[in-house]
Amino acid sequence: MVSSSVCEHVLARALSRGGTFAEIFIEDSRNFSMSLRDGRIENAALSRPYGAGVRVYDGLRSIYVYTCDVSESGLLRAADRAAAAVTDTPKSVGDIKLAERANADIHPVKTPFLSVEASRRAEILRKADKAARAVSSNIVQVSAGLLSREQHVLIANSEGLYTGDTRVYTRLLCSAVASDGRENQTGTRNPGAMMGFELFESRVDPARVGREAARTAIEMLHAPVCPSGVMPVAIGNGFGGVIFHEACGHSLEATSVAKGNSQFAGKLGARIANPKVSAVDDGTIPHAWGSMNIDDEGHPSQRNVLIKDGVCTSYLIDRLNGQRMGMPSTGSSRRQNYTFEPTSRMTNTFILNGPDKNEDIIRSIDKGLYCRKMGGGSVNPVTGEFNFAVTEGYLVRNGQICEPVRGAALIGKGSEILMDIDMVGQNLDVGQGMCGSASGSIPTNVGQPLIRVSSITVGGR
């Protein structure tokens, strides 16, 4: 996108008034979206974000300037603006020599999404719509969407790095609304991967996605409101891992740990979870929704064991916060696009399989709740306090999953729930989501096997 010689010139200009480190991030993306509602294609849109960000370190302070002008003169203007904010004493800048580094691609694309004719793309949405409506006459509305992103990035820095990467994402979104004329309930499924159109040839069946979205909506439509109270809760695999992601994962990011704004700051080597709990953030899984070949600072992605047998073993660390903490990067620096400065973020984060059989987990609950599907929620990373909606839940009595209930919410604190996970099953699965934080919205996988929380507050009626 931009030659190494131009990058050398820009980096030197960025450090011309002081500073200890400079970096350029250049992005050229193609984003496609298509949506269907009530059986009709509503829109199809293609956009091409193209721009760059220049970053300079002024001690442990970061200065970031971005621009959509990626000509040499545009990049130099951005570098001058960043340099003007440096308070460090100006010093002589030696020659910056960039050396290109190639990266292995563990996410090769077989069928580029935009190479497929529009009629085939539309048919994916129609299959999901048709299957959802066939579940029940109570399905009154179906919405489906296709998203594709092809992101090309170039990263260069004053330590000599000159490298790039291509990230390709494809996702199907489906939402079904069930109604009995008095109340409405919604079910959703949103699978995705770092793949092209071959996603629908090997991993994702649009009809199944539609049916599952509709099934949840119908199941919850006729369900009574969940009773409230403190009780044992079993949380299903896959997207159930959103609780660990939100209530605990964000608190293990250096974004909050480095400033002491985390419930887990200073906890390396300490027991923070039940010994049955081991958790990993792994950005190296081929084709996984949250993976990368390199992070957004050019560091190779890696597998980071966050918790092993209940003990905190690692944080997720970006370059700047690593300097604040005196620790190396863990390949965890991410950003939504060039308009955001990067910081430490999760990739594919999940609790590993444990020693318990899934049937024993349910059998162990005399009176409680089984959360088959989790929804969104909110969390305070400083305190770890969270509140999560249960989108599909069932009462458990005498070790048996019984009638469905709706309107449940799980309320607790991250550090407490980790200790209270006293059974971990063996059916690890993951779900796809978009995670919002300081550096924007990014693709992440969440996951876990079936787990049991011995005691947690359930909000309901």
Question: Can you describe this structure?
Answer:
By secondary structure, this protein is α+β, with helices and mostly antiparallel strands. It is about 20% helix and about 40% strand. The protein has ten helices and 24 strands. It has helices spanning about 5-15, 70-85, 120-135, 200, 205-220, 240-250, 255, 320-325, 360-365, 415-420, and strands at about 20-35, 40-45, 50-60, 60-65, 100, 140-155, 160-180, 185-190, 190-195, 230-235, 280, 305-310, 310, 335, 345, 350, 365-380, 385-395, 400-405, 410-415, 420-425, 430-435, 440-450, 450-460. Strands 1, 2, 3, 4, 5, 6, 7, 8 and 9 form a nine-stranded mixed sheet that branches. The protein has a six-stranded mixed sheet with strand order 13-12-11-16-23-22, with helices on one face. The protein has a five-stranded mixed barrel with strand order 10-17-18-20-24. Helix 1 runs parallel beside helix 2 and helix 3 packs parallel to helix 5 (about 205-220). The radius of gyration is 24 Å and the shape is globular.
Helix content: 10-25%
Residues in β-strands, percent = 35-45%
The value of Rg in angstroms is: 24 Å
Approximate shape: globular
Please give the number of β-strands: 24
Distance between the termini: 57 Å
Q: What is the count of DSSP helices, taking H or I runs of 4+ residues?
A: 10
Largest sheet: 9 strands, mixed
Averaged pLDDT, please? Answer: 95
Regions with pLDDT < 50 over 5+ consecutive residues?
none
Q: Which structural class fits the helix and strand makeup?
A: alpha+beta
Q: What's a concise summary of this model?
A:
With 461 residues, the chain is α+β, with helices and mostly antiparallel strands.
